[in-house]
UniProtKB/TrEMBL annotation:
This is Glycoside hydrolase family 1 protein. One of its GO terms (molecular function) is beta-glucosidase activity. It comes from the Bacteria. It comes from Enterobacter bugandensis. SUPFAM superfamilies: (Trans)glycosidases. GO terms for biological process: carbohydrate catabolic process.
Amino acid sequence: MKYAFPDNFWWGSASSALQTEGAREGETTWDYWFAREPNRFHNGVGPQHTSTFYQNWKTDIQLLKQLNHNSFRTSISWARLIPDGIGEVNPEAVDFYNQVIDELNEQGITPFITLFHFDMPMAMQEIGGWENRDVVDAYARYAQICFELFGDRVLHWFTFNEPIVPVEGGYLYDFHYPNVVDFRRAATVAYHTVLAHAKAVQAYRAGHYAGEIGIVLNLTPSYPRSQNPADVKAAHVADLMFNRSFLDPVLRGEYPADLVALLKSYDQLPACKPEDGFLIAEGKIDLLGVNYYQPRRVKCRDSAVNPQAPFMPEWFFDNYEMPGRKMNPYRGWEIYAPGIYDILVNLRDNYGNPRCFISENGMGVENEQRFIENGQINDHYRIEFISEHLTWLHKGISEGCNCLGYHMWTFIDNWSWCNAYKNRYGFIQLDLETQQRTIKKSGEWFAATALNNSFEKE
Ligand code: BGP
């Protein structure tokens, strides 16, 4: 069967500044943490060892072209542009991002730019990071500077990438700096991130720029083990905490009332100011990026909560391992392609069918060298993964979902937050020794699909 996509569908991939650029000047929390606890990073490989995009941007953009990308998302590094977060703008950073943006446009590849992809300037973290409202203001200033510098040539902006991840990693589950475990502080970080987002949207609107502004959220559909009311309730709470805590403010301009009530009843609400509500209402977006990797399966708790243990989302559900689920064993994530369709249908039916696109989807695989045939990685499993997800995406579009494109994570194999180069995601293989780039089979498959705006599958 042939799966054809709408005209002007966005075909591309996503990456981020910290994971690709290398050679950074402004210190981020990642540099700081790595210098102190290198053991927390896979094989002790830190954020300075990335895929050298800072040196190779021009030839890398040629490779994007070869993959027939018509769009590409990356981020600006706040710490590179404004090393101390709040002071002087670094002119070399301005030159670098200008060159990248201009070259992308020249090559017919529309730049999609994220303002914050997990990379907090250390100077901002030192004053409390997202727990401090001064950092919210500093971020709003940084966003405004980016709009002024690049807004004439960048028409698709994203305030944050997966803003729930620094909340989970840094304040609940100990996989990002500052390794705090404290729900109320986590809720404050999440809340201030929403305020920062809204301030950036406000600044963008005030500047009357020609483009649009949105956010990228990792939406993990919450599937209950069964339709038993206890399981359904567990899935509902997980959905409130991990999806709707950002989805509702950015699409509806307000928080779900039952999330607020729940946190209030456990005395976990962040400090709010009366004027915050107006600001959040102004943070509604033009375009939603959806990152989808895995579903969340939950069931009601089997045991009573230990009231001495820290308050956690898991007070309300247990994670559920569905028998027969298909796994990506390298990353430990379930592969469930219909999830992409369920997300789109939920957006269509419950959120007014917003303009959206899949901004990340992907499969990290270890030791891909074993698949080399005639000098090229034959990643047939990745082609299978992409085409399966695309068939569900296609079904969503054919049923009226407003999905405008599909971007893969990622372009060239890159450094990952705690896994360094353990799992490879790229369309292009990176030789870490020589920095040589070689297109994988999936890259060729994707290039053909983008060119034809369609693909064939049984
Ligand atoms: C997303 C992030 C990316 C990327 C990807 C793969 O959550 O936006 O930055 O890293 O996941 O995940 P990982 O690198 O943890 O395997």
